Amino acid sequence: MSRNEDLFERARAVIPGGVNSPVRAFGSVGGTPRFFVSASGPLVTDADGRDYVDLVASWGPALVGHAHPEVIAAVVEAAGRGLSFGASTPAETELAEEIRRRVPIAEKIRLVSTGTEATMTAIRLARGATGRDLLVKFAGHYHGHSDGLLAQAGSGLATLALPGSAGVPAAIAAQTLVVRYNDRAALEAVFAEHGERIAAVITEAAGANMGVVPPAPGFTSFLRELTRRHGALLISDEVLTGFRSGPSGYWGVLREAGEDVAPDLLTFGKVVGGGLPVAAIAGRAEVMDLLAPLGPVYQAGTLSGNPVAVAAGLATLRLADDAVYARIAGAADTVSRAASAALTEAGMPHVVQRAGTLFSVFFGAAVIDGVPDYETATLQDAAAYAAFFHAMLDAGVSLPPSAFEAWFLTAAHDDAALERIISALPAAARAAAA
Ligand code: PLP
Questions:
Q1: Cα-Cα-Cα-Cα dihedral of 362, 367, 372, 374, to 10°?
Q2: 373 contacts 181 by C-beta, under 8 angstroms
Q3: Prediction ipTM score
Q4: Could you identify the atom of ligand 1 that is nearest to the CA of residue 279?
Q5: Is residue 271 located within the same domain as residue 222?
Q6: Quick check: 308 and 278 in contact, CB under 8 A?
Q7: Helices (H), strands (E): how many in the chain?
Q8: Which of 196, 390, 422, 425 is paired with 106 by a 20 to 30 Å CA distance?
């Protein structure tokens, strides 16, 4: 028995499914999950001592590569000064300032520990600001695992083929209206019927939890106009895209494309913590100031703005200059083109979709015209992806263990790492097509 198999067996005896987050269990691709013991630059090393070129990057945070010496030094230095004070620290303000420098419409920022908390609080703020209850979300968009946001939430639920979660009271689920992404007519219809009662529309800045599904040109501007017309707030969830799809997140990508859209609230996570638990709610000062202690909307956290976690986030963002984003964009070009070429050569129908530096590959004849929404994303050939995933893993490349995820590159993916990916692709593509 390999160390990975042994560890998985032991884990399953004490941890439900052997994992602390469902997608890690390899449920949809089969086989034994790898237990990682260390990571450095573009590589992760498992308990059997094998290393893999990593295309998960901790689901985003490892923007500058794993265990970057400057990030580690910042964490060690902060840890040496104390792990947590339950009081304010200077670095929290520095991190908030760095976020606002990159995304100036984030006038005020509140730090929390997870993306789930950030979106949960953003919704409470929207309800507090409008005095309304209903929330509109898009099918296939994931905003964390709070009760009201688990309806047709893509990603982990899609991997397990679940429409939602058990344990969510019907009365809470009824407050969430789920609409097809990129579908203007469906949104108009929902607002025509319930407009007076809708507190907010929450959207991933670019869909990236059903594979990568960017907003159609003009769709985010349309969302802004529609919500404003009906007195509802627009919440842009940049937990995944923020400071990853580009230096100013997907907000910046859209702006460069000529769509200057100012959501009322934004949420950040992943990269802002550089691999430790930091997330943020941000937005218009007038709305953000409704948070306690200034306003009536309550939110709190023992570990919010934790000094060690904030040090990791600040160090990561300070390293993430234009050269880092250019490098990641170049690596995304290289890998996505090589994957597409190998799949074409093997006769495997597919489509590559991009959102800034993020991309994913959808497998199967049913999706080759493009994936604008969740319904289409579910038509992909998950069995072909599973075969591809395992062939890549055998060749030393760790892809996301689900067809419903983005592929993540880092600035540490050097030529050697890219070459290892490229050389593994032809055999994996043939396995997918078999
Ligand atoms: N929002 C988006 C867009 C996400 O991708 C995620 C996590 O993948 C979350 C929210 C939830 O963040 P967390 O896992 O930190 O709770």
A1: -80
A2: yes
A3: 0.99
A4: 15
A5: yes
A6: no
A7: 15, 13
A8: 196
Query: Which residue's CA lies nearest to atom 7 of ligand 1?
Result: 144
Radius of gyration of the chain (CA): 21
* pLDDT (tens digit per residue) in 44-95: 999 999 999 999 999 999 999 999 999 999 999 999 999 999 999 999 999 9
The rounded distance, in Å, linking the Cα atoms of 175 and 171 is 7
User: Taking the model in full, what pTM does it have?
Assistant: 0.97
- Residue 257's domain comprises 69-319
**Domains in the chain, number:** 2
Q: Measuring CA to CA, how many Å separate 106 from each of 29, 235, 405?
A: 39, 12, 27
36 & 113 share domain: no
Strand partners, 238: 268
Q: What is the pLDDT of residues 371-391, one digit of tens each?
A: 999 999 999 999 999 999 999
Token pair 């990682």 is found at 36
Q: What separation in Å is there between the alpha carbon of 279 and the centre of ligand 1? A: 9
Separation of alpha carbons 193 and 181, rounded Å? 18
Same domain for 90 and 60: no
- Cβ(46) to ligand 1 under 6 A? no
Quote the ligand 1 centre to 70 CA distance (angstroms). Answer: 25
Name the token pair of 365.
């004849």
